[in-house]
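Weekly structure sync, notes
Attendees: PL (lead), two postdocs, one rotation student
Agenda item 3: pending single-chain targets
PL asked that the sequence for the first pending target be pasted directly into the notes so everyone works from the same version. It is reproduced below exactly as submitted, 259 residues in total.
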Amino acid sequence: MEFNDVIHGHRSIREYEDREVSQELLDQILDAGIRASSSGNMQSYSIVVTKDKELKQKLYSAHMEQSMVVDAPILLTFCADFNRMRKWLSLNDAPVHFDNFMSFMIGTIDATLAAQNCALAAENAGLGICYMGSTLANCDQIGELLKLPPNVVPVIGYSLGYPAENPAKRDRLPKHGIVHYDQYRDYSHEDIQGIYKEREEKGWKRYMDIPKLKEMTEHLGLKNLAQIYTIAKYTKESHHEFSQTVLNYLESQNFMNNE
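Predicted structure, written out during the meeting:
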């Protein structure tokens, strides 16, 4: 595929063919991830490949019962990982730290870059993916199931396989609403209305066209897309709960040392 076709053709795939991904192709995808940029070339991430059906069934609950967890042949979980490097430092009589929040952020950025490289390589080969925010939201449950040691935290995950659907591309906010030159230029009310106009129309239509989503919207008495985001999908209460889960897990995984 042409590179621009890969970039602009992205869709989240939730339905997959009952077809295995060859190890050769999987290796090509993983090699693309490993070539991603990383801070100081430390590569402070690890990639967990999950194929085992029994383990995927256990992960199904941790991933908020999303069907692609069990339907896709592969799950990829990208972890911020300073466990490996800390052991290397210890073996070389070097100071052993990287056990703080900044280190977690470095590992998260490294994992994100690797994840997107893998995603592009997969889509270029005709495979589909679907990112799952549940990876970070339920990092404690997923970390336990994947037997992650201290200084390793799952931050990004997605399903991977051959698509069994061809969903329409989702809209994106216009470039002028996202890109700032030289310095950040804050938005007026008029700017916001213009930037989100298409999103509000297409997003609302999508909810009204899917019976289950329409029923939920009507049941909650929601009147616009902004209310869907903050009352139905991403509530303040849920974000507070997930935030505490992440903070607690970072503490237990030795990423919150301030000494």
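Discussion points:
- The chain has two domains: 3-168, 175-237.
- The domain at 3-168 is CATH 3.40.109.10 (NADH Oxidase).
Action: rotation student to compare against the earlier draft before next sync.
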